[in-house]
Give the backbone structure.
Amino acid sequence: MSAITLKNIVKEYGDGYAAVNDVSLDIADGEFVILVGPSGCGKSTLLRMIVGLEDITSGELRIDDDLVNDKAPRDRDLAMVFQNYALYPHLTVFENIAFPLRLTKGALSDDEIDARVRRASTLLELDEHLDRKPANLSGGQRQRVAMGRAIVREARAFLFDEPLSNLDAKLRGQMRTEIARMQRTLGTTTVYVTHDQTEALTLGDRVAVLRRGVLQQVASPRSLYEQPVNLFVAGFIGSPPMNFLPGTVGESSISTPFGDLPLTDRLRSAVDGREIVIVGIRPDAFHDVDESDVPDEAVRFEAEIDVTEWLGSELYAYVPFTSHDDVAAKLEELDRDLDGEGMRTQLVVSLDAMSTLTDGDDATLWFDPASAHVFDPETGDNLTRDAERASKLDEHGAKARKRAIERAREKAERGEASVAVPSAG
Amino acid sequence: MLTTKQKVWWALGTVAVLVYALFPVAAIFATSFKPSSELTSGTFLPSSPTLSNYESILAGDAQELFLSSLRNSIGISVISTVLASILATLAAYAIARLDFPGKKLVLMTSLAVSIFPVISIVTPLFNLWRTIGLYDTWPGLIIPYMSLTLPISIWTLTAFFRQIPWELEQAAQVDGATTYQAFRRAIVPLAAPGVFTTALIAFFIAWNDFVYGISLTSTSAARPVPAALAFFTGSSQFEEPTGAISAAAVVVTIPVVVLVLLFQRQIVSGLTQGAVKG
């Protein structure tokens, strides 16, 4: 187990295109870090640079204190799970898992190899499949074999490259939990690449959000969700995504297509003389007047519901609006960055599942202005970000991680690590 | 599903093709069992089958000529196949996997080499070989045979290697393998069916060659079977050696048939499938 340190890492291709630009990141021993971003943001390239399959143009990559920039993958002692699993089709499951051990050439006896493979296969519930070939396994089983091959080596860190993207939704949920449990049990430093923000939020101790090769924010999932640094992070994290409304700053309020936010001290200092801002409000901050107690400070507005989506646990309602010209361009650019289709601008509202609203209904909704973020339309910076609160959330996350690792080590010392067998489908 | 009518047509077509392809083989097979008196009788089947022709090439007059040429054929074909397979495997791997200047040139050159008619090269080669002392030696045939077998091997293997997922090799490297180990333990087992098929094709090309065999040899030191057949003589100058030639032709056909029958599954899968799915 090791710490990984990235210092001003740059990846530039022959044509001068910087796929990864000046990324610095400290990954602590035992930490689970997620690299997340839309396609083409450089997250996979960054991971492949860490493992050594991609050259580093400039910057320093250290594992513990060793500079490994120019080391071959085999000398870095990292284990990686590939997106397509990359299992060796001619080898049985047992030999696939044993493959890295066989390469150590005599350092391990056959008995030792057998014992270690069996320990890994028990942990991953692959015992009954050891003699089968990968072609005869289901997607989830292949995924577990790939993980087995990674954990059997007791490498310095695990690297995952979108490991769940080839699985169907149900299995993805199960495997996500498995990976989290495995990482907590083993306490191994893990770097995990995904484009799925749900995976990012659920798995990560810390999440690094990348956009066009540039690191936007590294923070605990809670801090990322509550206190995003800019429009991009706010729009990327959260599902359905945060609503961005054009806001015109007046004497005593910011007026949006959906009601006016009174200029409290917090908002006044944030706006700081700007005339136009972008107001960001999460879908779950909205409520139906008929179905909840409305606090005094709430902002109410009337809306004609265009489409509703009932999901059992909640109800999404969509309300179209026309965006302000000054911010439309910025929002369109953001949408492109987020792999969006640049469709209509609409407000997404997440309501209680018991709500009886249907398509075409008129509704009165409210939201708490304290939950609104205000962004600069030029730079995209979050003007209302509470740095103090953010660092408190990060501290909380770090503490939780430390406790989890300590618990895992205590368990391992008591010899229970392999008893905590996960169940997978 | 095929209708009855279609089935009949397919059967007829298949039979026609089989007769067309196999009748000469059957004729030679029948002839090889005829005594010399019957060679010109005009009947298809020998009236009194005899093994005398086989005796003459394996134990009789023609023994020395035939057995030495058989040894030459086997040795030269096997060596040129092995060399071509090894070289083509390495070359095709490099072409499919690595980025180096002149990659296209290598492919194009090997294609160009295989386009030249053998007969146009053989005369200059004859002169060259005599000058440098390769005339009538094993290497003197192995080298030109490789010019026939290498291009096709490189082309088929390159196509085959391109279908093997790149990720497997990277996975092996991350798992702790050197470049060579990754090639040896992750790629070669997957490529083996393709290499095997290519080697068989290369072997047949070398085994069947006649032009080089007759032009670049003069004695039994290196003369392969197809060329040696032309030197068979009858027991007197008035007797044609047709029976002995037929027997020899049957003997050299046997290894080819046996190889194909033994490995037909690998050949078919190697030629058609190639895809390696994890």
Notes: Chain B touches chain A at residues 165, 167-168, 170-178, 181, 185-186, 189-190, 276-278 (CB under 8 Å). DSSP finds eleven helices and no strands in chain B.
